[in-house]
Amino acid sequence: MELLQNDLLLRAARGEKTERVPVWMMRQAGRILAEYRAVRDKAGSFIKLATNPELAAEVTLQPVDLLGVDAAIIFSDILVVPEAMGLPYEMEEKRGPVFPKIVKSMEDIAQLRVAEPEADLGYVLDAIRIVKKELNGRVPLIGFAGAPFTIFCYMTEGKGSKTFSVAKKALYADPEFSHQLLQKITDSTISYLKAQIAAGANLVQIFDSWAGILSPVQYREYSLPYIKQICDAITEAPVTVFAKGAFFARREIGELNCEVVGLDWNMDIEESRKLIPNKTLQGNLDPCVLYSSFGQIKAEVRKMLEAFGTQRYIANLGHGVYPDTDPDKVRCFIDAVKSY
Q: What is the pTM of this model?
């Protein structure tokens, strides 16, 4: 076991007693910080930053030094997995990720490979190793990957979407194709997360960002079984499952072989505790609260902490922090949690 100066997050994840509530934020390494923007400008683009281990490590460490969070999360992107499987993407300013080629047929699936982490994603693993050295045990490091269904959405649709109707059409029109692609993504994700842990990640989070576009019936067929495979396979470190919008699946997510369940801001805290009684919960302040006054941020944080309680709980936002948020408001959120 690695000796950490601050292991609050890991103790909370494992359900052990903590002196105070640990806090970190999704997208904490990003555009909210001028220091991040400076490094990104130096890199030349998002993808060049994410694939440069030294620079990715530098921006991973910034929130620990500048915001005082209780964990670092490796700076990367969920779409490195399809790229490692043979489906490259581009990041377009204002449009987001775009895949020049999409997966449409069984032949397309056959051409994809199961990612080999050291060969295909070595730059992420190198960044993790650099971060671990630089952190020197100050706080834990979180690794992550997208949930198979969320990755499937991008690989079949080719870009972001409000409805992902192309991806959903595939589920209805060609279940066999859908399951085959989801399985290949799952196999790649398991080996990738295991490699992140071997490189030094203390905890890993699965982001099912597009969970909420599925009906409960479809979620049970096309998302949960694949997340379950990942949770069952990862025995080396605690696992957090964050399924945005899947309020209808909280009980089933709570029954997965994971330690932590992340909640978005639409999920009622009291109800979630009843549905998920035996896990640590993470979340779930609305990121828009950070646009309000310092006094209101403190009041909303207090309300949230009183509802969750101080044990088996990791404070976070209910989604990633928005890029135009004032860093002082972010510090106010973090300090309000720490001083509770």
A: 0.98
